[in-house]
Structure formats: C-alpha cells, structure tokens
Amino acid sequence: MVVYAAVAVALLLVGARAIRGEQGAEPSFAAASGGSGGSSFSVGGPSGDLVVHVAGAVRRPGVYRMPAGSRVNDAVRRAGGAIRQDSLEAINLAARLADGQQVVVPEAGPGGAAVAAAGEEGPISLGTATAEQLEEIEGIGPVTAGDIIEFRDEHGGLSSVDQLDQVPGIGPATMESLRARLQP
Fold first, then answer.
1. CATH number for the 29-113 domain, one of 3.10.20, 3.40.1350, 3.90.320, 1.10.10?
2. Suppose 131 and one of 60, 76, 79, 145 were both cysteines; which one would form an S-S bond, judging by CB atoms 3.0 to 4.6 Å apart?
3. What are the mean pLDDT values of the chain's consecutive 10-residue runs (184 residues total)?
C-alpha cells in the first residue's frame, strides 16, 4: 500500500511539473512561424531579446526574435539572406538592432543598383535613405541629412519617424515634412 502511495505521489509531481512546464514554455519563433515569414509569435520572452521585422529582398521575410546585441547582418541571415547580394550594399549590416526595428533589404534595380525608395512620389525608407534622398525633403539640407544618417547608424536603425525629433536641427515643421515623406 505504501509503495502504491509513493508511486502515486511521484506521478502527481511529474505530471504537475510537466503541466507547469507547458504553460511557461514559450514557442520558438521558427516553430510558430513555420518558416514561412508569418508573424505569429508569443509576446514577451527572455529579457534582452529583440523583436525585429525583416522585409524586402530576403528569402523569408517576417518577424524574428533576436538576442540583444545582434546586428542587422544577423537579422538578414536569420531571414534566409538577401535574394541578391548587391542589395546589401544599400544598408548598414554592422548596425546594432533595436527592439521593434524594421530592416528593409531593398530590391535590386536595373544593372544591380539598389532601389532605396518606392518611387519619386512615394515615401522613402528611413532604414535605407541616402543623404541625397533626405535632402529632397523640404527643410532638410546636407548637414541635417548627414545628422539623420549618423543618428540612424548609431542607434542601429530607427523603428519610427518620430525618433528623428532627437536629431539636432529637426523642429516641429521639419517633423511634419518627414512624416509625409518617410516610412520606418
């Protein structure tokens, strides 16, 4: 009788531990997305993890969980790499990732030139904009364009146009122009 009681207690403990483990377990992103670029995953996770969106000319665009301290290159590799290697010349692969950042690998245009913007009239990608493209925006000159690119590179990219209000020389009027012409 004592043996049966001991076995029953052991089974209860193992069952309770298994149930607690299932409730506290967080699925890995690869399992949750099926590798198809889906963006369904559990929010939260180990402290220090970053969640980034990799889009554009990559093999598996999607939302990925990355360890703190990861670089843009790590996110592009996690997304299966660039479809065309010459597309990578338009982005800073060495920049540190920020939580919530979108990394856009531009499509390669004719002759292999990377296309950083959707078109003359469309919004410019903040993650890949060149100084020349930024200077086309009303209120942005060469110095401010350089400051924006430097700020972007120092912070590992930008997840929102609103972050540019931290750049010296950008006031409320310029922010309105930036919102109309830039996308994260």
1. 3.10.20
2. 145
3. 87 72 42 40 57 89 91 92 84 84 74 45 71 79 86 78 79 74 71
